[in-house]
Structures are given as C-alpha cells and as structure tokens.
Specification:
The structure is a homodimer of 135-residue chains.
Chain A (H helix, E strand, L loop, with lengths): L6 H18 L3 H5 L2 E8 L7 E2 L1 H14 L6 E10 L3 E12 L7 E14 L2 E10 L5
Parallel strand pairs in A: 1-6
Antiparallel strand pairs in A: 1-2, 3-4, 4-5, 5-6
C-alpha cells in the first residue's frame, strides 16, 4: 500500500488478502464471502471453466485434499486497477501441492481477479488461476 | 452483441475481435495496436509472466512458428464487464498448435483481458492466456 492507493484499491487489496487468508484456514464460507453467485472460475486443474458458486466451491476440494497442511497460499505480488464500478487485480501467488505441476512442492501460479461494485460493495465475478503449460 | 450492450462494451468487443483478426494475419503491429507499453502478459507457455510490449511481442514468436497455417485463433465466447474507466473481458478461445498441450491439433484455452481507458481510448494493460494443467 502506498499513499497513492485509492479507497477502492485499498478495499480490493484487503478483500483479496482476506480471501487468501480464508484459503489458508480452509474456511469455505470466508473464501466465498465476497463472490457473486454467477461468478466464472478458470482454475489450474481441469475443467476449462467452472460457472457459479457451487461449481467454484467444488474446485477447492481437490486443492485442500492434496495440499500439505498447513495450507500455503501466499500473495507474492498484487497489482490492482480500479475504476468506480469495475476493477481487476493481477497477482503472482505461491501454494504447496503434491498434485498440480510436475514437481511436488512449492508451486508459483498466476492469478487474475475481476470485480464489480454491487450495492456499493466490491464483489468477485471472475477468477483466473493458471500455471504455464509444460512444452 | 445485444441491444443492452453499452457503447464501451461494443468498443471493447470490437477491439478484441480486431486483435484476434490481427493474430490470424500474423500482423504484429495490429496485435499491439491497442496495448499499453507496460502491459503484463501471463501466457500459455513459460515464462510465468512477460512485462512490457517488447516481451509481449516475443511471446508471439513461438506461437506463430509452431502454428499450422492459416493460423487458427477463434473467439468461441466473449463476455465483457465494463465501467467508465476500467474493464475486463473473459473468453473461451480456440487455436491450433503442434506444440502446446499434449495432443497436437485444436486447443481450447481461456483468456482474460484487463483494460483501462487512457486518453478516452480503451487500452489493453493485461492479458492472461491459459490451459488447464495436466494432472
């Protein structure tokens, strides 16, 4: 956070930090707290997309099953681009996984989050998590 | 396009369709026409990220080298969330590649694009292309 961050940027940064904290606690209610019912998830493992909150919840089950405990889910760098009503955030993230990626252990991944202000509250309507494809 | 699309949504849809057309023509100037100098690319192959337009241009070289001709780069579904100054778009895309993915041939991938209105013109500041990781 710098002196130049707008109020919206601060709110979104806090939202994403709280969300990552909920992932570390395996707190599914916290993970979904700021998410729209019709959000669209592009996750690291298949399928190609998951539409709606029930499908989003399901994407976390294999992650928690395979992740060593305590869960690692760290924000390494987070940049936010916020307008008055629409915003997105891009991040480099680190988790720990025995399943995703060729080498078990720490896994760096990319995250893009799309948000809308709904009823004066920032709400996640899109998440895109990925790792580079192996050639 | 529907009657409900805003002027900004129409402009962004046209921008992304024009960009995909430039990819099909292998027209690098057209590909970069609406892109910010400091844009951040998360691409399908490594590296984890590419920062800045010269690095973005380099990400297209292996794609064009490996892609059968004529280049396939089709928008299968495109959804746009636009505010006055910030917007993002999410899409399912199809390309044809002999390199990326396990099976040569058609490859479906996910695309998220982040945009800012700069000097009254929508400008791409972020692209995130990915395929699901193989387990």
């Amino acid at each position: 956070m710098t002196m130049n961050d707008t109020q919206d940027e601060v709110a979104i940064r806090t939202l994403i930090q709280d969300w990552a904290g909920a992932v570390r606690r395996q707190d599914m209610e916290g993970i979904c707290r700021d998410h729209a019912a019709d959000m669209v998830m592009f996750d690291v493992p298949p399928p190609l997309e998951a539409r709606g909150l029930p499908s989003y919840v399901k994407t976390w089950e294999p992650f928690f099953r395979m992740s060593p405990k305590p869960v690692v889910f760290d924000i390494e760098r987070l940049e936010i681009v916020a307008g008055d009503e629409v915003a997105f955030a891009i991040a480099l993230m680190r988790c720990s996984s025995g399943e995703v990626g060729a080498i078990p252990g720490d896994l760096e991944f990319r995250l893009t989050v799309g948000l809308r202000k709904i009823n004066n509250r920032w709400t996640v309507v899109h998440e895109h998590h990925s790792v580079p494809a192996e050639s």
